[in-house]
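Quick question, first post here. What does this chain look like in 3D?
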Amino acid sequence: MKTALLIILVLLLTGLAVLALLINRWRNSPHGRLSLAAAIIGKLADWQAASGDKSPQAMRASRDKSIGFFIARPAGVHAVRDLDIPGPGVALPVRIYTPQASLAALPIIIYFHGGGWVLGNLHSHDNLCRTLAAKTSAIVVSVDYRLAPENPFPAALDDAVAALHWVAAHAPTFNGDSTRIALAGDSAGGNLAAALSLQAREQQGPAIAAQALLYPAVDLSNLDRPSILQFAQGLFLTRERMDWFIDQYVPDQAMRSSPLVSPLLAGNHQHLPPALIITAGLDPLRDEGEAYAAALEQAGVATRLTRIEGVIHGFASMDRWFPEASQATDLIAGFLREQFSKVAAQSGKN
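> Answer (accepted):
Ran it through. Tokens below.
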């Protein structure tokens, strides 16, 4: 019996040693020494991409099963409510997070999840939305917009427009303040938030107090920027996957230069909401996000840019693995609280 236990122990220790050697090898990259989280998640993403059914339906099912692997314990909020609001011809599911009981109306963040316009839903970014609600003391309305390829551009943006108009018109029904509405999103959701800001400017409302963009995709016409080529493989989001996502969302290549698809390419960035843009140091989309910040600043838009080094695309919704996720949500919360306070001061609200 003792001999058998000893053999099992030796095999276990040997297996752990081999695993440690493998992980150590994964951490060595052309971009320097990766964090443990970046190395493991990058490798798992590569394995997933190389095996199994690559259809959107299979990818969605796989992502839904793995949510618990990425997120930490959910943040506590006062109330969470799911409902369907009128969309462009279809019902549009949203989830409303109320951070606390309040006699006064609370500011509102409309959140658009990432996932390459193909993946993601209300559940995939539930913890991120809870965290933002708790840290900002704002109501978060998460939007379950239609996904590609079943619903290519402009379906997701049309849903975003519908959500903004509904929130502005119905804010009092959930104790929200329609004069203090911000947009936020990550990756593809950052793209929608930026495009919606442009759309709202052209339509002269509803008013948007601020936009917070996490590693946004803002130029779908160009996959040859230096960061895309530098981080083309092995770091969760690859150039090949980004190309595939774009094909699903905007199959018509001529449309990819539209400002509502690629907000960076808009001819005029003036009079857009104050912006916070957070990029990830090891992200293929890093350069276009930073170029968008420069374009906004050049156009006179109050803009803040923060690059968080050593992290990969999507890190903010992987808070179990990346402590930097808390840094990102702290930055967003501080920025939005400041912008909400400015609007309140201008309107004479306390």
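The chain has a mean pLDDT of 92.
Residues 2-27 form the longest helix (26 residues).
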